[in-house]
Design goal:
This protein is α/β, with parallel strands linked by helices. It has 2 domains: 21-109, Ribosomal protein L30/S12 (60s Ribosomal Protein L30, Chain: A); 129-176, no CATH class. It has 8 helices and 6 strands, in the order ααβααβαββαβαβα. It has helices spanning 3-16, 23-28, 43-47, 51-59, 75-87, 129-133, 141-150, 163-167; strands at 37-42, 66-70, 91-95, 104-109, 138-139, 159-160. The protein has a 4-stranded mixed β-sheet. A two-stranded parallel ribbon has the order 5-6. α4 runs parallel beside α5 (75-87). It is elongated, with a radius of gyration of 22 Å.
Length: 179
């Protein structure tokens, strides 16, 4: 390489910045390399009523060290995602760029290369509309058993109606005609 080539390269880096490795990959995976991504959730999955449940399931995957959240997500959902991530003592960052492509809204990643074959949440449990409409509400024992049949962690998303609740007149959502 001649000194003229070196000078031209130096000027190019000075004007345009250093060339990025796998730039297309990084704008698809919210600034991360694909090899570090463990799971990714789309805008549609995260905005679904069961989105936070799907997120909690994804956090249980091995090798998850950090969470990258796209700023385009509704603020309430973003705050909930951050709270769950903080509760699990994981690092997180919120990112924004007009260059991002694709529909990934949240990426769960490792600090090391894991090369996950499938980062999608395609194998997520199919949750009925009844449960989606009643996340966080009080349910009876029968409803909680049905939730457990869908996924063992699903009943944790609801409150169990206690004997005291029954005395106070609190009823299961299924008794209110929503079933």
């Amino acid at each position: 390489m001649t000194s003229k080539d070196k000078l031209e390269e130096y000027l190019t880096v000075g004007v345009y910045g250093a060339p990025e490795i796998k730039k297309e990959e990084k704008i698809r995976y919210l600034g991360l390399f694909r090899e570090n991504v463990v799971k990714g959730l789309t805008f549609q999955e995260i905005q679904d009523a069961a989105g936070l449940f799907y997120f909690k399931l994804a956090l249980k995957k091995p090798h998850v060290d950090k969470v990258v959240i796209r700023q385009d997500i509704l603020e309430e959902k973003r705050r909930q995602l951050i709270a769950i991530t903080t509760e699990k003592s994981l690092d997180f960052k919120v990112v924004s760029s007009e260059d991002f492509i694709g529909d990934l809204a949240v990426v769960l990643a490792s600090n090391e290369a894991v090369n996950s074959k499938d980062i999608s949440m395609e194998n997520k449990p199919e949750i009925s509309q009844f449960f989606k409409d009643n996340f966080g509400k009080s349910l009876c024992k029968d409803c909680l058993e049905k939730a457990e049949a869908i996924h063992p962690d699903l009943p944790k998303e609801f409150k169990k109606i206690s004997f005291f609740d029954k005395i106070m007149g609190i009823k299961c959502e299924c008794d209110r005609g929503q079933k």
